[in-house]
Write a structure and sequence with these properties.
By secondary structure, the protein is an alpha/beta fold. Helices cover 39% and strands 15% of the residues. Helix 6 (100-111) packs parallel to helix 7. The structure holds pyridoxal-5'-phosphate.
Length: 369
Amino acid sequence: MGSVHWLQQAKAGVQKISPYQIGTPIETVKRELGLTSVIKLASNENALGCSPAVLQAFTTSLKNTQELHRYPDGAGYSLRNALAKFWNKSSDEIILGNGSNDVIDLIARCFAGPNDEVIISEYAFPIYALVAKSVGATIIKTPAQEYGHDVVAMLQAITEKTKVIYIANPNNPTGTWLPKNILREFLSQVPKHIVVVVDEAYSEYMLHPNFPHTISWIQEFPNLIVTRTFSKAYGMASFRFGYSVSHSDIASILNRVRQPFNINGLALSLAEVALSDQGFVQQSCEYNKTGLQQLRDGLNQLKIKFIDTEANFLCMLMNKSSEVIYQELLRYGIIVRPLHMPGLEHAIRITVGKSDENQQCLEALSKII
Ligand SMILES: *Cc1c(COP(=O)(O)O)cnc(C)c1O
């Protein structure tokens, strides 16, 4: 049998996907460079870890092992009720995901297919293009404006084929964000049958009074789906938990395609504990604010340009190849994220870490540049 060219067997959209590059794991760097101490500032994880209440509940859960062979509550009854109460929403407006990326994927699978168009911005979170391609939809990418989403261009890109518009607010990797008035005006102009996804993965960090927390806008804009995650400010990336809030009619559609047991039992119970510890979230945001300022000050001193933000990461604009700087920082035991996006080849994303980690990163940068 001749060897099969499997890529040619894949769906046309899938052939177009360039695989998502994950942040380099700490163990990989230790192993490959023979280092014992490595700092990871590459995946926007919470510098403070997760809530002590979550750690406590996790430890306790290790003693309650009698029910591990049973399927978890696929409807996530208790957690959805807790989230509904938290947001003053109804639980039928909430869809749980194995990370918010899972919900972002569900939305594409429910609403877009071949012959449909999905609008995203240049420099937007790469997962949107990935999920749109995987369902065979056509991606309409509008040029960025000062590295952020140009909502006027996005409005102009709407055609009768448009099904879904994805907006990351703030955006990763650029950290740019749309203020209340601009996002509201945009939503009011989008035809009501087009789904608009506002991905608020970093919204907890956004303390600016003009930042829109749009879950409260869903009644006004029933075509809006807001996604949230516990991977960032809640510090629970490894448990994989995120969710969406939308009109219940949209939620019930997402629920048709959602795998019945997409959230594991541990994540279901620990996310509820995390939600109840808002003190930790607040503490994380305050800690981030200080760390972000430390990085801003340090980068200004080094005359390294960056895109300003309030999120827990900064996008640095270097004057040489980001891949080279990434490799040099690795030798100092510091993992950052070189961006390989067209137009951002000289950009490096760095996560706000603990103060000593930020300091070490700034020192290494000063030696490299
Ligand atoms: C990290 C991130 C997410 C969250 O992904 P999870 O699947 O919830 O871990 C979603 N959107 C953006 C823009 C992100 O940066």
